[in-house]
Structure formats: C-alpha cells, structure tokens
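Person: I have long wanted to understand how a fold can be written as tokens. Underneath my words sits a plain record pairing an amino acid chain with its backbone structure tokens. Those tokens are not coordinates but codes from a learned vocabulary of shapes. I should like you to check that the lines agree and flag anything odd. The protein I mean follows directly.
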Amino acid sequence: MSNQIQKLKGGKRPGAGRKPGSTTRLEETVVIRIPASQKPVVSSLIEAYAKKQRFNQARENLDPVAVFTQPAPHLHSIRLPLFESKVPAGFPSPADDHIEGRLDPNEYLIDQADTTFFVTIQGDSMIEAGLMPGDKAVVDKGKIAVVGDIVLVMIDGGFTIKTLAKQKDGSPKLLPANSSGKYSPILIQEPMQFEIWGVVTGSFRRFRQ
C-alpha cells in the first residue's frame, strides 16, 4: 500500500505544467543555471534581444512609399465645370442647369502650397483607406497630426503611410488599413527613430493616359 501512495505522490501528472501558448516569450524556453550575481546581466541581454525582435518585426510592416515631389512653383487657377452628382446615364449635358459651379483642383487638393508635397504609394497596406499602389498622396507638413489622421512617418530612415493611434502608455502606434492580415500594427518604442513628416490630406490617381 505504501508503495502505491508513493507512486501517486510522485511523477508528472497529466495536464500539469504551463499550457502551450500561455507564455508571452518570443521562443520556447529552457532551464539553465547561472551565478546569482549575473542574473541582472542575463536579464538585460534577454530584454535587449526581445526589443530587437520586436523592432525587426515592425520594419517588416513599413510598406514604404517613394517618389517625393512638390507642386509646381506657380499654381495657376483651373476652374472646371462641377456637374450635379445625380445625372442621367451617359455624358452629362453641358447645359447650365446641370452645373453646380466650378472646381479648381489645385484649391481643392492643396491648402498651403509651400507646406505641401506628394508621395507615390507603393504597397497595399492602406487600400481600405482608399490609398492604392500608384496613387499620389497629398501630404501637408504644416498640419499638426492627431490620433485618427493618416500620416507620413519616417522610421529609422524608411518612410511609410499609416493611421496614427496611441498605445496604452501614450506612445505612438501606426495602424494599417488592410484586413487581409498581411500587415500588423507598428508599435513605436526604443530604440526606433520616429518622426511624423506630415498629414495626408488627400490623394489622386489616373486611370489612363
């Protein structure tokens, strides 16, 4: 009887131990023995490694932009007919009763010419915000970015466009607009170099030449 009791008390019990996926560590862990005096050093190295891994993951989600251009030095007024939104199928009649007014594309897209520039969208991380590859995004560096704005940012020398949000500690967080799961939010943290270059105020594209 005593041997049976000993067997029940000892050994690994079914279902015991940490459940799979319950740890927040980046990798599986192993047990090692180190001098007690070296524990702070090892802990610091592990934390630095974890930060580097998170940093590398963030860089994978940059989805960069390219081709920075500025408006022409002298913008001329171009007022084109603005037709009513509800017109019969086919080409709108040029009759005056179908024209709401005249629209200047320069005035519509550009608030301040001296603080505005354009960038070309390369990736598809913001397609659900209407920014498609090849589009020209209108960026105003004179506007103060607030949470919810679409912004052009620089992260460690690379540029990307994302929606500005905040983490629980108040640090910036950049959100994609693509529900495919291809892109993850970018959490800004040390040692990243982070700077907001401007607020995206609009975009335009051509369908044919």
About this structure: Strands lie at 65-69, 80-83, 99-103, 116-121, 136-140, 150-155, 158-166, 172-175, 186-187, 194-204. The chain has a mean pLDDT of 78.
